[in-house]
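User: Second chain of the day. Same drill as before.
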Amino acid sequence: MDAAVVDALGRLSEALEAVEVARGHLYAFHRLSGTADLTAGEAVEMLREAGHGGLADRIERELIGRNVLPGRWTFQIVEEYDDGYYATFKELERAARDELASGRRHLYEARMKEDRRTHGAPGHEATPADLPAEH
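Assistant: Same format as last time:
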């Protein structure tokens, strides 16, 4: 396969990996925001029990269950990201691989592995099928 195509697909794969990491951070944001809301709710109850009902009421009214962005809780942000940008990115990366590389993934890395490994040395096998029989 043409090296320029392998390089381009490798760069697109690298970009997708960055999107995957960003998605993971978005899910972490979603989980942490939910945890914060639930924990703040527990703090409200503790404040009430400690005799600070007015402050507890204010925190409950202004903060508990509040949208993190206008009209959105974090699950809605995650869903919009997944269904929009993320789904489009994944589909186009797959389409490029299907069109240019018969769907094969990580061609750039496979070429790098072949260039960097020490042929014939233990631990440098090209594939699991190349491992000695005792493995």
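The helical segments are 3-49, 53-62, 74-101, 107-116.

User: Great, on to the next one.
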